Fold each of these.
Amino acid sequence: MQVAPSILAADQLHLEQEVGRMIKAGCDLLHVDVMDGHFVPNMSFGPGMVLALHARFPELRLDVHLMLDNPADYLQVFAKAGAWGITVHAEIPGGAENCLREIRALGCSAGLALKPATPATAVTELFPLTDMMLVMTVEPGFGGQHFNSAMLQKLSHLRALGWTGLFEADGGLQLSNLPLLAAHGLDVAVMGTAMFGSDDPARDIARIHEM
Ligand code: DX5
Ligand code: ZN
């Protein structure tokens, strides 16, 4: 399993050191949450952060999670800023289809995120347009929430419906619940609080890589 530390949980005044620490510890991707205060009741980073991270850490794959009502307006700017992957939500007005097509056309990995209440059956038609399926294991908006174990069934359901691509999970992930997620086929673990709060992220990432 791969690890994508989420910078939402990093010390915001020392992001360069915080990200450097995660790279040194062996992280595979860096998860950047983008929130608009409308799609979710919180605000976070914008394209300027992606640009700055990409300039400072050009080898690092930036996994950009767009929690926006209108992600279509920003796909190009995030791709230009240096995003490796861009994830949009299935619940956005008008649906995610056109965004997924555009993300691929921009040369990025296309991610599709599902809030906890969105069933697997809502996205089957989008399977061919999606590279990574992000199953939210908390209600999006804030770090440090409790893992919703009912989402494990969604992973199984998506597989049963024919999803054969990568699985990412986001929200409340800890070393303690990762074995269960691994058993359900998880490929990429987004970890905010657990990774930036760890006293030994290198040890934790090494363990996760073995799962
Ligand atoms: C929640 C965000 C997550 C968040 C996860 O809306 O999408 O990426 O940073 O944080 P933890 O791992 O602390 O639950
Ligand atoms: Zn996220």
Amino acid sequence: MNHILPTLPYDPAALEPHIDSRTMALHHDVHHATYVNNLNAAIAPHPELHGRTASWLLRNRGKIPVAARNAVHNNAGGHLNHSMLWRMMSPDGGGEPSGVLAEAIRRDFGGFNAFKNRFAEAGARLFGSGWVWLVSVPQEGGQLKIETTVGHDNPLTLGHFPLMVNDLWEHAYYLKHRNSRPEYLDSWWAVANWGEAARQFGRSLGDADEQPQGEVVFKVPAMA
Ligand code: MN
């Protein structure tokens, strides 16, 4: 077994009433598990891909054998993005960011409420399934931006550093909010984990104290 489904960092019911336990259990135990299983199946015939992280597989699409390329890309993204999503929510979430992340959000969006509105608007506007991100762009001096990606793409393929993310696939909200993605995006702020986003921001700034424990999930390579 190459890639492993991470355990949820909290009980599936811990985000109630904002994110319901049925959605969390299905989302993690079935959807995310399927991406992990399909990723392992896709790389199985290709020993040269064994031992590569999901992040490497995403960033090196051109090095994946053509026959496996789409399956590896889609499922590595599904695995990586969901691994980040679970950490970006918390039963102790909500509120506002503090410290240098709050300052950077004020600098680049004009304020926290303006940021929230733009993040929610971008998420509501994306057609079909995808993700909405707060990223830091090293090529632009660490400027913060909001980006959306389709399918399971991830801004790290552009060398952008993800700080915060939300899942726009219907499976993330359909049981509770039916077709209302804006309602889901609005309620999601109550569980947003700004502590984890601040740690990601520290990592983006190269803060040695903020390097993640264990596998480096979101290590962005220096641009060549
Ligand atoms: Mn999902």
